Amino acid sequence: MAFPLVMSTLAGCAVGPDYISPTIALPTHWSDGAGKPPRQSPAQLAQWWRRFDDPLLNDLIEEAVQGNLDVAAAKARIREARALQRQSVGALFPQVSGSGSATANRSSAGVATEGVGATTYNQFQAGFDSSWELDLFGANRRAVESATYNVQASDDDLRATLLTLVGDVASYYIEARGYRARALLARRTAASQRATAALTQKKLDAGSTSPVDNAKAIAQAANTEAAIPAYETSYKEAVHRLGVLLGRDPTALVSRMARATAIPAPRLPLPKGIPADLLSMRPDVRKAERQLAQYTAKIGQAEAALYPDVSLNGSLSTTALKLGDLGKNSTIGWSVGPSLSVPIFNGGKLRAAVDVAQAQRDEYHIAWRSAVLTALEDVENAIVSLAQERIRIRSLSESASRYGEAARLSRSLYESGSSSFLDVLDAERSQFSAEDSLLESRANLARDYVALGKALGGGWDGAIDSSRPEVVDAEMGPHLAAGQ
Prior knowledge:
Shape: elongated
Oligomer: single chain
Structural class: alpha+beta
Distance between the termini: 63 Å
């Protein structure tokens, strides 16, 4: 009774540190939340992009989740991690293998007795061999623990990839809409400036203005038109990037994006919660924490190698000269018993492996802290950018409105001869610059909103099937190899 008791006690033994979730000091509120009561539950950030109320953007994000190649690679890493976990679990169980042979034999006559020559006979053999590593010090269990944490880290890696993907699709969509709006503004402005140039031409023909005014009017229109190719290039590049993000060719979305629409404007404010929510909301932070747990378990694996390794081995075989005699009691042999392997001298190799594992654990602990601080920085930067861009938009809106009014008045006064053409040029140039800056600011505001949604950890919350392989192998069993 003593031996089973000792074995069961040792079976629950493991060396190395047990994982304890790390802690870090965090602020109680965001920089714009001083004096406000903290939320009692995490903010609901899933599918924050729907606050743009843009059906095409919603469709593109859903298609990207299904077709993006980075997401497909992350799914493959999950399948890999799960397979590695199954491998680790397999080491906890006995390993059994079978063998069999059938041989024809001829013995040499040698120095056989008189009248006895060489003999020929058949021999048949079959048997089983088994081995079970008792894992007294938990090396295999630590390996399973490490592999399990790796699976969890791979799941969070997929979520982090999806978070980045959603943000990229939204950002490039906004960028495309912004450049298309700015190109249309440049065309409208250039057309208006061409009309002003035609007016100066009429005045020149009537002798009421100088050729200098006419040349300046034509030059300003041409200068405005020169901005259009750059805007169109940036627009096409954003559309091409969207196509690739969806896992398609770069021109796949050209027709769907062709219709000009307004720059998406989000419904504000976006709920932010408290800084501590990032520990559970940000998938990159969760991934870093799971990797820390994984490499903590690896220390136990390395430490266990310093201790004795005990296995139970057994074999069962039957050998006979006739096939029909296999399995008879007289042909059966067996053996069973423990084996012990003790590390005596290895030049410090095993102890160095423990030091390596501990150093790796420290690296991932630092990486987790860095991920948390980076997440805090991302949110604070996005909060400031969003707030300041809203202030900038208000100023630019007033500027664009005033310059528009000034341009209309100066043009009217010029037509009546009450103002110089220099006033018209300056007003039109300032109007275009203010309206262009306003469109740019609106796009920046939308991108700042996207950055805040990403920084807070909001992303895709739908189901993701990672079990289906990207490539289905038709022939896995024995078959004739195809020619090269």
